[in-house]
Amino acid sequence: MGRRPALVALAVLLIGCPAAGVAQAGTVTGATFYVNDAAAGCSDTGPGSAAEPFCQIQPAADAATPGATVRIAGTGKSYAPVTIRSTGTADAPITFSATAIGDSSTVTVAGPRSATGITFDGARYVDMAGVRITAAAASALVVEDSQHITYRAASARGNIADAATAVIAIDGASSDISLTRLKVYRGSGPTAVSSATGARDITLAGDTFDVGGVSAVGTTGIDFAGDTFRTVCGAISLTGGSSGSVENTVALPYGTTGCSTGTADLTVDATSAPQVTADYNAFNPPSTGTDYDWAGTAYATAEAFRAGTGQGGHDLDQTDLAIPADGLPAEHSPLIDSADSDAPGELSTDVDGRPRGDDPLVADTGTGHDDRGATEFQDPFTVSGLRVGYGYVGVPTTAVATLSNPWSDSLDGLTYTFDFADGTTVTSTTGSATHTYSQATSSTGIQASVVVNRADGTRVGVAGYWERVDPVPDLTPSIGCGTGPSLPDAAGCTYDTGFDPYPITSDRITFGDGSAALSVTASSDAVRHTYKAPGTYTVAQTVTDSDGRTATATSPVTVGAAFVAAGPTRLLDTRNGTGAPKRAVGAGGVVRLKILGVGGVPASGVTAVTLNVTDTGATASSYVSVYPDGIARPSASNLNFLAGQTNPNLVTVRVGADGYVDLYNAHGTVNLVADVEGYYTTKTGAAAEQDMSGLAVVTPTRVLDTRSGIGAHKGAVGPRSTTTITLPKYTRGGATQGAVLNVTVTGGTSSGYITVACDGPTPPTTSTLNYRAGQTASNLATPCAYSGTLHIYNSAGHVNLIADLQGVYTNDLVNMGGDPDAPAGGPFVATAPARFLDTRTGLGASAKPLGANGTLTVKLTKVPAGATAVLVNLTGVAPTTGTHLTAYGDGTLPTVSNDNLTAGQTRPVLAVVPVGADGSIRIHNAFGSVDVVADLEGYYG
User: Fold this and answer.
1) How far is CA 728 from CA 704, 717, 736, 788, 821, in A?
2) SS3 205
3) Which residues of the chain have pLDDT under 70?
4) CB neighbours (10 Å) of residue 709?
5) pLDDT of residue 18
6) Residue 415, C-beta contacts closer than 8 angstroms, at least 6 positions apart
7) Cα–Cα dist 198/195, whole Å
8) How many of the other CB atoms lie within 10 Å of CB of 9?
9) 550 torsion bin: left (phi>0), alpha (psi -120 to 50), beta (else)
10) Pairwise CA distance, residues 206 & 584, whole Å
11) Cα(226)–Cα(583) distance, rounded to whole angstroms?
12) Contact yes or no for 901/603 (Cβ under 8 A)
């Protein structure tokens, strides 16, 4: 830093700070007087001591002698105007200083509208610091016939209507006046400071001026250094043979109001120009003004000024920068480090008392490191924030101070004092501290803070953070598992440990099949597990934290097989030797039918097959059981018939380990026919991935009834006709692969059969349902139904067709979001056929027939929770009149049927039945009374 003028150096040496006057070594220290208008014992006739202070400043000023100090308390009220005639000496000046007390209120002098706030009249060697002045119709500060007066570190405001009256007025008999670090505001009018002819040695340094500027007439030795002007009509005017210097000054318009006279920011008349130097200034004049008026010539730019006068060699103007409206420099501004540090009157501090210093990000273009204008751009090193971990009672949380340090200051020696707002403070040298709260707070929390200081005790900054402290929440992990049709035997699970303020020490997932537990480390993720056997399993996630707390979350998952629609293709016909010897099956006879590798069924990877089994030409009443080859024959039946009838029923049966299934006939002889409708698999190699599907159970819906015109034209269909069925909208996307339909024929004019298939009108070689003239018969069908379309072929005569949709098979396109309208399907788990209802014996219900309009609620004790539907062989036995049975889950009875019966008939039908919320299914009988038998064939996940 360059030299400083002797006057400023003396003031700094003598005063030190606004709160105290410190005399130079060898001086005589006078008395100290106290002023406090808020003190209960204040008196203007008292001693002015700390115990009994003066109420006003005037008696203290009257009592002050060389070396005296007057301490004025800021109380929030204004003191009365004062005239200071005190006379100090060069070695023992008189000091007036503002002292903040209590709420740190400032010291302000203000009087009646026409009164001057502070008047120096004949005063000598007086220094006043921190005392603000406010005036209305008169000047705020007047200096008359006074010498060696310093007024600094304060503000002077005047809302003066008279344009000729300045906020600060210096008369021609005064000299050695220092106005430094002031904030001067004039409500309107051109002049904030005036200096009259004859005045000498005036210094204005580190000041800010709003609205009004400075006018000096005939003043010898007036120096401007590091001031900022935001004015309406010019910043500085030196006339009448004035002399001095204008350096490091910044001038810009005040708001958008223009000056009607077009005044320049710097005006120096012809009589003053030879005695005035100007350099290192920065001017942005208003649109109606100009930069310079020098010796009667206007100069609109600094370049023109230099060329015309030889002055302003380092000046900046509007072509170099746009000065911000507040006059404050921003990082990289040309105002930074570009001033003349040796300018007459230049201070070592700015208007706010902050030191002038070097900005390492800006090259020095002045004579030192000073910035132009009253405000020095400060090191932006500060505390930009405080982060505190969420608070939980008893759990350590860490507070971290965030620093903004664009100048890359050294962090050595910094101390961080953290206040956790519960009576605990922690001092750290690392920028972080850990604390454990012992009590919860309210929902608004408490404000923690950090104060960062340098090694010399100066503050870097402070930051706060509202911290809420809650009781430790319960440990709540979560896990959810599901399957997809392309990997039906694998569980895909997503887990989340949940929030835990303590570190997790163990997170293990077990899959319920006896396999080794899986340890996971991520707080949330997805895992997959393939099961060796179908069924419903419980997946469990057990989490343990460092506090020893343990919690477990579970999720059931059903894995099994995916359905692939195939055929219909005939695999067995004992009438012509297809699939078995050409002969009827005798009483107690078993047909061993090869499944794998036949009729479109893969040679491996198949767990179960769906067959449409038909009896024909029976010599006696009997039943047929279909079961896996290689196991004991079950007691359940799949097909019941009388002699001479032809009856079909859909059967889903597990395939034996050798790839065969068995068909057992109980009595008499009968020919058996079996058509494959589809198969179940867990292997993508056994079928194309897009063909693998899961069953989505839907609300039973009648999609075809030619009697009433639902789904087709009203009226019986004719012989060798094909009826096209379009399923509901949600089945028409790319995910739908097949459908589950209960089809019924009624009122046929002759015997015949129908075939349900996804193929078009080509006459099929298989049958779904055989019927006799006048008979009402039904059967379940599982045809492919790509894009929600399928067909029903009628072989002979005229007959009415009815179709009830029970479910749809959809593929992985649903889970991938490719078909948002389609429902997601689940896997199938085949079970050993097991009878769970027989009203003849009292199994699962009372031992009595089900009456007209009666409903049985049957609890499914052999089906795990979470099953969406069951596959049931439903048999009506010997109804007293023609009737139909409807099986459903819960809710309102649907207007569909599953098993249509004539009086005395025993008729089985395969049914897909939704499982009710209570784990039961319901079976309703329409007319008369009938015994009901139900055998479980499997369930769907």
Assistant:
1) 11, 22, 11, 7, 11
2) strand
3) 1-29, 100-104, 260, 684-687, 760-762
4) 11
5) 37
6) 427, 428, 429, 452, 453, 455
7) 9
8) 12
9) beta
10) 120
11) 121
12) no
First to last CA, the chain: 84
Q: How far, CA to CA in Å, does 522 sit from each of 421, 454, 506, 551?
A: 34, 41, 11, 17
Amino acid at 467: E
What is the spatial distance between Cα 144 and Cα 132, in angstroms, rounded to a whole number? 19
pLDDT tens digits, 652-690: 999 999 999 999 999 999 999 999 999 999 876 656 778
179, 234, 530, 666 from 509: Cα distances, Å? 79, 80, 14, 50
Contacts of residue 844, Cβ cutoff 8 Å, sequence gap at least 6: 836, 837, 838, 858, 859, 934
The answer to whether 99 and 71 are in contact (CB under 8 A) is: yes
Backbone angles phi, psi at 926, to 5 degrees: -80, -50
DSSP labels for 656-711? PTTSEEEEEE-SS-BEEEEEEEEEEES-GGGS-GGG-BEEEEEEEEEEEETTTTBS
- Sort 51 into a burial class: Cβ within 10 Å, 0-12 / 13-18 / 19+: exposed
DSSP state of 420: -
585, β-bridge pairs: 670
Summarised one tens digit per residue, pLDDT across range 393-410 is: 999 999 999 999 999 999
Quick check: bond before 879 cis, omega within 30?
A: no
How big is the chain, counted in residues? 941
Torsion of Cα atoms, 215 then 221 then 227 then 229, to 10°: 10
C-alpha 361/C-alpha 344 separation (Å) is 27
Buried b (16+ CB within 10 A) or exposed e, 447-462: ebbbbbbbeeeeebbb
Among candidate residues 496, 495, 494, 435, the one with its CA nearest the CA of residue 469? 435
